[in-house]
Design brief:
This protein has three helices and no strands. The mean pLDDT is 85.
């Protein structure tokens, strides 16, 4: 149980709760909250990629390649989900 309670998981839960609260209480700010989320996630992702690249060079692994492939698959899934829902309300 304790391996599932990590700082990253806690951040995602808090982010989800904040998104839910903003969408219920202040609907007009949902778009700006999502823009802020993207602006925060990009630098963190770049920092993690640089860190993983350094680790891969030292240890001779291919984790970076696998993580980039996972991100590409997730991006395709998100585009498909966006196209299905059409997001007319945002």
């Amino acid at each position: 149980m304790m391996k599932h309670v990590t700082p990253t998981n806690i951040i995602f839960v808090v982010w989800g709760i904040a998104l839910f609260c903003i969408s219920e209480l202040y609907y007009e700010y949902v778009r700006y909250f999502l823009y802020l989320s993207i602006a925060i996630i990009f630098p963190v992702t770049i920092w993690n990629i640089i860190k993983q690249r350094k680790i891969d060079k030292i240890e001779g692994t291919e984790e970076l390649k696998h993580s980039i492939n996972r991100m590409m698959i997730l991006a395709v899934v998100l585009v498909i989900m966006f196209a299905i829902t059409k997001q007319n309300h945002i």
